[in-house]
Write a structure and sequence with these properties.
Blueprint (H helix, E strand, L loop, with lengths): L16 E15 L5 E9 L2 E7 L4 H5 L6 E11 L2 E11 L15 H15 L5 H11 L2 H9 L13 H16 L8 H10 L4 H4 E2 L5 E2 L1 H5 L2 H20 L5 H13 L15 H25 L26
Parallel strand pairs: 3-5
Antiparallel strand pairs: 1-2, 1-4, 2-3, 4-5, 6-7
Helix pairs in contact: 2-5, 3-9, 5-6, 5-11, 6-10, 6-11, 9-10, 10-11
Length: about 325
């Protein structure tokens, strides 16, 4: 099915018949209140995802496809408590002739290559000698950079698509370049490196060949713990290569930037930000993530005729989406 004829998730309206291909993830076979089984699965394309249910499902329905498979789905949409969902009557693996992989790629390879070039340019602006050594160590690590440019920045909340990590980190680094010169007491070099490293371990926390999920290490450790280990290993490598020591206090400050960037204990931060750079990194990271996630909520809202979205319990509010100015 070509992109010209498909209805993307973001275009689906209430009570609309559906017969097309999606990417399946997070499938579960669950009992309802009466004990009857139903299949729940997230179906996605490059525009977003829709929660899908198949009533009166069997174990064979569950085993008919795997997470990460392209599936052909028949059913109809419905609005439920303000959210769009899809009620499927049939789900099967898609045939190759039914599939256009371009329908599932949010960022094209040319976009990713352009962002990678810009990321390299910014890191090469760093003046600090030890941080320059560290930046070069990561940039020359082809295996790491390949994963860094393919990884998503998260599962659902923001930049949850291949290339999303690179897009988020680059956006954050551009914010650092805009904000740091306004505050001479900040170290722009530390902030740039913190922006680069803060989510770098998403490369190993998540898997992302097709669908997105947590690796075992991601579930057991999380990207902040993995990120500190990743940083230690890279410092060890560059010291071994050039024979020059790496400043211990600087290394501690970089680790603090990684483990404090969530900002609050309730958001999973092991430490509160305690340096100026850590405080600013948290605020800028939160800004970029919030703009991306709120924009996605607005784009996915099924209330297309209203300037207001439905109420989102996860953020405790509706969102206003004014008409676009000419």
């Amino acid at each position: 099915m070509s992109s010209d004829s498909r209805r993307f998730v973001s275009q689906l309206a209430h009570n609309e018949p559906v017969s097309q291909v999606f990417l399946a993830s997070d499938k579960q076979l669950r009992p309802n209140r009466n004990g009857n089984l139903y299949l729940q699965v997230d179906l996605s394309d490059r525009s977003g995802s829709v929660n899908t249910r198949m009533w009166n499902a069997t174990d064979n329905d569950y085993k008919a496809f795997d997470n990460g498979d392209y599936v052909h789905v028949e059913g109809a949409t419905q609005l439920f408590q303000g959210n769009m969902q899809l009620i499927a009557t049939r789900i099967r693996k898609a045939r190759p002739d039914e599939l256009d992989e371009g329908d599932f790629i949010t960022l094209q390879s040319a976009d990713i290559e352009k962002m990678r070039t810009r990321l390299t340019e910014i890191l090469e602006q760093i003046q600090s000698t030890p941080l320059t050594r560290l930046a070069k160590g990561f940039l020359k690590d082809d295996a790491f950079m390949d994963k860094f440019c393919r990884a998503p920045a998260g599962m659902k909340n923001h930049h949850a698509y291949q290339g999303g990590l690179l897009e988020h980190v680059l956006s954050l680094m551009e914010l650092v370049l805009a904000v740091a010169p306004k505050y001479p007491q900040l170290s722009q070099d530390k902030l740039l490196m913190g922006a680069f490293l803060h989510d770098a371990a998403k490369t190993d926390e998540l898997f992302y060949d097709r669908d997105i999920g947590y690796t075992d290490a991601g579930q057991l450790l999380g990207h902040m713990v993995i990120g500190v280990s990743m940083l230690d290993e890279k410092v060890r490598q560059i010291v071994q290569q050039d024979g020059q020591p790496f400043p211990e206090r600087l290394l501690i400050e970089l680790k603090h930037l990684i483990i404090s960037h969530h900002g609050e204990y309730e958001y999973g931060s092991p430490k509160l930000p305690m340096t100026l750079e850590a405080i600013v990194l948290h605020l800028l990271d939160n800004l970029d993530a919030k703009v991306a996630s709120f924009s996605q909520l607005m784009a996915d809202c099924p209330n297309s005729e209203s300037n207001w979205t439905q109420y989102f319990s996860q953020i405790g509010r509706k969102l206003f989406k004014p008409e676009k100015e000419d």
